[in-house]
Automatic annotation (TrEMBL):
PROSITE patterns: BULB_LECTIN (PS50927), EGF_3 (PS50026). This is non-specific serine/threonine protein kinase. It catalyses: L-seryl-[protein] + ATP = O-phospho-L-seryl-[protein] + ADP + H(+); L-threonyl-[protein] + ATP = O-phospho-L-threonyl-[protein] + ADP + H(+). Keywords: Disulfide bond, EGF-like domain, Glycoprotein, Signal. Residues 10-130 form the Bulb-type lectin domain. Coiled coil: none annotated. Its EC number is 2.7.11.1. Residues 254-290 form the EGF-like domain. One of its GO terms (biological process) is recognition of pollen. PANTHER family: BULB-TYPE LECTIN DOMAIN-CONTAINING PROTEIN (PTHR32444), OS09G0551150 PROTEIN (PTHR32444:SF118).
Amino acid sequence: MFMLNLVIASDTLSPGQSIKDGERLVSSGQSFELGFFSPENSKYRYLGIWYKFSPEKVVWIANRNNPLTDSNGALTFSDEGNLVVLNRSKSIIWSSNSSMVLRNPVAQLLDSGNLVSFDYPSDTQLAGMRMGWNLKSGFEGRLTSCKSTDDPSSGDYTNGINVNGLPHFEMFNRGSTKTFRTGPWNGFRFMGAPATESAPFKSLFVYNETDVYCEFDNPVEVIITIFALNHSGVIQRLQRKKESSTWDVMMTYPRDPCDNYGQCVANSVCKSNKDPRCQCLQGFVPKSQEEWKLFNSTSGCIRKAQLNCFQEPGFLKISMLNRPDPIDFWVECLKNCSCTAYANSDVRGGGSGCLMWFGDLIDIREFEQDNHVQNIYIKLSAYEVMLKNDPILERSRLHQT
């Protein structure tokens, strides 16, 4: 990363002042710097924020989609009180776009890394930065990848919280192709996410009538952690000790092929430690046995026995699975013939709330372990459930076939 080495001995920008290319603001605790830089192998200039002790780790970029072509840029205030980046001809190429006209505005680079960066996330979530929704204003904070290591403009991948049904994180490629999702919030954490009780950061999830967001803090001052989405669509939790010279990877998503969205088809489960990886759920069989023998599972799985809506069904409990996608939780599963499966929405205190699925069960993976067991109840005929729960009857049925 190329930058000039002039520093303004302040963390604050006031009306009438400007930050020119080569000048920098420094937060009061010497944690962050703001200024103009060029990525490696790039001639373009961008206004960004980076760690003072790790200048290569740029955590926010203002004009990522409208770069400067020379070193004549400047950060200043407009007449309306907005922060703006100007080019050589004094044209605005980026603005903070406040809806209010501000008198005597002041911009301060905080030791959290916040200037206006928390309102305009780039590809990195810092401690204290909210990822999610303000339901009143409609504002959404989500991460957007860079195009490449040399091009910080908005890339192909976005990661944010879906608030339809129970909140869960989703990643999309080019805005429309879902590539990854977590399980929904279960009262303790997003299903499938690793436990963080012993981690050097503390997560917080808020879910109420006005806000749905996730944030974290760094209570261990000597260890910094960040959450970043790279240009390849990989989400990483990074950590660095302040005296260290490198960032270490704590967590990576997707972790294995089963994390890729829709890795296995309808009514099947992805098991990363099995071969073949995709296997039909209990009570279901391959729609095409010939294709599955050739490791082609695209036709999916169908029920062994069709349900009779006039007969009372049974429910088979299966644990350690990521819940299917999508969900609907407004009707009672037992009395609705098209309901395929149900589960508790909150696992605390023995479980509460009800989620239901209709039609095919999509994007399911198996977990090897989970401290907060997730049970899913799949609707089968009462006879099938009896067979599954009685090994003698099951062996007898297999012998007859």
